[in-house]
Amino acid sequence: MRGFGRSIPGVLLALAICVPAFADSQDEPPPPSPSGAFGEDEADLAARLVINSLGLAPDDPSNAHDDDPRAAALGERLFNDPRLSRNGAVSCASCHDAAREFQDGLPLGQGIGVANRRTMPLEGVAWNTWFFWDGRKDSLWSQALAPLENPVEHGADRTALVQVMAADYARDYVAVFGPFPDWGDLPRHAGPLGDATAIAQWQAMPEADQRAVNEVFANIGKAIAAYERGLVPKGSRLDRYLRVEFGGIEGAKGALTADEEHGLEIFAGKGRCISCHQGPRLTDGFFHNTGVPSVAGLPADAGRLAALDQIEADPFNCLGPFSDAPAEACGELRFLLRDPKALARAFKTPSLRGVGRRAPYMHAGQFATLDEVVRHYDAAPAAEAGQTELKPIRLDEQEIKALVAFLEVL
Predict the structure, then answer these.
(1) How much helix, strand and coil, in percent to the nearest 5, is found in the chain?
(2) Last residue of a domain, one of 179, 198, 228
(3) pTM for the full predicted model
(4) Which string of b and e fits 240-258 if b means at least 16 CB within 10 Å?
(5) Which residue from 26, 226, 232, 320 could staple onto 72, CB 3.0 to 4.6 Å apart?
């Protein structure tokens, strides 16, 4: 490979090894193996990084409908329907814009109000183990439910949502999930997470009616998740470069500039980016404290540490009554670890696919440019809470420029 001082297999192996998601283990990611340790040639190593090696999204045992095309078609309609909001103006697509890598380009998400965190992109989301910046949801369908009731996102309530389903989506719903469950006279607006009136109305409902509403509510999430499973990451110039250089594919040899090649080397070597951004999606799916500063005016955010109780108490988690999974399939949830030192202000590693088009960056849009991101990681400032995992890298200006150039390739 032109421009690389190290052995090609060693650098590619560091990039290409697709380390499984660490679930909630606190173990450090394994270091890259030495060159040639697996006896694979360069083409095999490159093939494990390129997007073509991602394969099919893993099955979600908690959603029996995740591969049903009828559920996906229904989910796409729901994803784009602003009626699933209190004001009739906010849909999932309002923040997850297909033209913007399924995010919104804003420092903080905006629905009915303004959120405290940035909107995460959705391409490749079906490969996640945990969802949201803090991982407070353990399935894609359960994640899809949370914004619907969030007062600053959709701001809807459960009885209003299920009544929209019964009135406007009955045929499609029944085709996927079977008949609607029986319920009595539902209040127009009631739910356990609504305003005081909605909560009071919910608490006054018979338990059987609450259960019936929750069943349809869960199925709304399962349909949306079936659609979102089809949002796969796009290829980039890096993929074309590796396939041409090492996969025997015909094409232009100059797919990367000298700066971009140098940035690839830094990414896999001196910059240590590969420690968290690994595999075809360039993420380990885990949570890390990297000393990112808080934002003035926003509430204190403890990240992953504050999410653990929410996960276990969630009736829509893998072990809950609306999950389709047997208990033995819920290992990540059953074996949560609670290390305050490791998890305080730890946030999920985002995929770097499409990162050049996703400014601003970090969980609350703290950095406006990739140059700012690289300089933060280079300096490795102390964490405001917990302990940062970063150590100073000491890149020079040319190396910073090269690393930013490589990130833009993605």
Answers:
(1) 40, 5, 55
(2) 228
(3) 0.89
(4) bbbbbbbbeeeeeeebbee
(5) 226
